[in-house]
């Protein structure tokens, strides 16, 4: 297994709100993309439970699309969310990337 890639982000929002943005269809649809790329809400499927599947279609400016899919591996609101993610839903689950979000400490107050 290769070494994980760690990306750290700080959000000016409660942990619960950030966690929910990953598992609430309307919120996920709103942020998963860019200004030029969108994820229509009607393409999003989320069975938010351990072992449940999720999928989304990302619409590209050139008219193309990217199919995303995965499975929820860990759910512990708001502390931990782990899910697999692939842009090749037809590939074996063992070849999918795994994404994990963890709780963080509160930012220090100024």
TrEMBL record:
Residues 95-110 have a biased composition (Basic residues). Residues 81-110 are annotated as: Disordered. It comes from the Bacteria. Residues 12-95 form the Activator of Hsp90 ATPase homologue 1/2-like C-terminal domain. InterPro entries: ASHA1/2-like_C (IPR013538), START-like_dom_sf (IPR023393). Belongs to the AHA1 family. This is Activator of Hsp90 ATPase homologue 1/2-like C-terminal domain-containing protein. It comes from Clavibacter michiganensis subsp. michiganensis.
């Amino acid at each position: 297994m290769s070494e994980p890639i760690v990306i750290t982000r700080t959000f000016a929002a409660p942990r619960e709100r950030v966690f929910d943005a990953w598992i609430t269809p309307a919120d996920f649809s709103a942020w998963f993309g860019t200004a030029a790329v969108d994820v229509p809400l009607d393409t999003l499927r989320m069975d938010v439970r351990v072992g449940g599947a999720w999928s989304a279609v990302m619409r590209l400016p050139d008219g193309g699309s990217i199919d995303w899919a995965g499975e929820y591996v860990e759910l512990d609101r708001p502390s931990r969310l782990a899910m697999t993610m692939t842009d090749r839903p037809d590939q074996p689950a063992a070849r999918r990337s795994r994404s994990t979000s963890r709780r963080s400490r509160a930012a220090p107050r100024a």
